[in-house]
Automatic annotation (TrEMBL):
UniProt-recorded Gene Ontology molecular function terms: oxidoreductase activity
A UniProt-annotated Pfam family: adh_short
Keywords: Oxidoreductase
Family: Belongs to the short-chain dehydrogenases/reductases (SDR) family.
CDD domains tied to this protein: SDR_c
Source species: Swaminathania salitolerans
Name of this chain's protein: Ribitol 2-dehydrogenase
Length: 242
C-alpha cells in the first residue's frame, strides 16, 4: 500500500523554476504543504500565486550553510516537523576539462555537491528526532555513467551517489529514507549551457524528457510503503543510449 502525502511537510531547494517548480506543483496536488527554498523571490511569489496557500516561500543562499539551516529552522518553527527534503538545486558546466574555467567549476561544485550535502544534513537531525522522513537528492544519469561531454558535472553527480549510498546506511536505523533520482536530459534552463549543436540535436531528435517526468518519479519514491526504499531511480528518454 502506498503512503499518502496529505499534509506532509516538504522543503524543495531550487523549487522556483524547472524541475523543482514542477515537483512543487505535484507535491501540492498530492496534498503536501510545500516550502520553496530559493533565492529568486519574484519566482517564488509567482509560484505562490499560482499554487495557493499550501506553498510557502523561504529565501535562502544555498552557498551558505547557515542560511540553509535558518531556512529549515523557519519550516520547523512554523510546522513543528519536516517530512520531506528534496535537495534539487543544481547547475551545469560542460565541455573539455582542459578548456574549462576553474571559477565556474567551483561555483557549480559548491551548488551541486556542498549545497546538496548541507541541505540533506540539516534535514537529518529533525527527521531522526521524529523517527521518520524522506530525503531525495537530484542526481543525474551522469552520476552512474561517465558522460564524455561533461566531466566536471559528471564528477559532481558521482559525489552525490557516494554521499546518498553511505548516508542511506547511516539513516536506516533511525527510520529515515534517502535516495537519489537520476534523470537523463530534461528540458530546463540548464540546457541553455549545453554546446549549441548538442542541444539542437537533442531537442529536434526528441531525446529529452519534461520536468513532469521527474516530478512523477519523485512522487513514486515518496509514496512507497514504510520499509521500502527506492535507492536510485534512473529515468531516460526513449532512445537515450548510455
Amino acid at each position: 500500500m502506498s503512503l499518502s502525502l496529505q499534509n506532509r511537510i516538504a522543503a524543495v531547494t531550487g523549487g522556483a523554476s524547472g524541475i523543482g517548480l514542477e515537483c512543487v506543483r505535484q507535491l501540492v496536488a498530492a496534498g503536501a504543504i510545500v516550502y520553496i527554498l530559493d533565492r529568486d523571490k519574484a519566482a517564488m511569489e509567482r509560484a505562490r500565486a499560482e499554487l495557493g496557500d499550501r506553498v510557502h516561500a523561504v529565501e535562502v543562499d544555498l552557498f551558505r550553510h547557515a542560511s540553509i539551516q535558518q531556512a529549515v529552522d523557519t519550516v520547523l518553527d512554523a510546522e513543528g516537523r519536516l517530512d520531506i527534503m528534496f535537495a534539487n538545486a543544481g547547475s551545469y558546466v560542460g565541455g573539455n576539462a582542459w578548456e574549462g574555467d576553474p571559477d565556474s567549476w567551483d561555483r557549480m561544485l559548491n551548488l551541486n555537491i556542498n549545497a546538496a550535502f548541507h541541505s540533506a544534513r540539516v534535514a537529518m537531525v529533525p527527521m531522526i528526532r521524529q523517527g521518520s522522513g524522506d530525503i531525495v537528492i537530484t542526481s543525474s544519469v551522469a552520476g552512474v555513467v561517465p558522460i564524455v561531454a561533461e566531466p566536471i558535472y559528471t564528477g559532481s553527480k558521482h559525489a552525490i551517489q557516494a554521499f546518498t549510498h553511505t548516508c542511506r546506511r547511516q539513516l536506516a536505523p533511525h527510520g529515515v529514507r534517502i535516495g537519489a533520482i537520476q534523470p537523463g536530459p530534461v528540458v530546463t534552463p540548464l540546457i541553455d549551457d549545453w554546446d549549441p549543436d548538442r542541444r539542437k540535436a537533442a531537442l529536434e531528435g526528441g531525446g529529452m524528457m519534461q520536468p513532469s517526468d521527474v516530478a512523477e518519479a519523485l512522487i513514486f519514491m515518496l509514496t512507497r510503503r514504510k520499509g521500502t526504499v527506492v535507492r536510485d531511480l534512473v529515468l531516460l528518454p526513449e532512445g537515450f543510449d548510455i
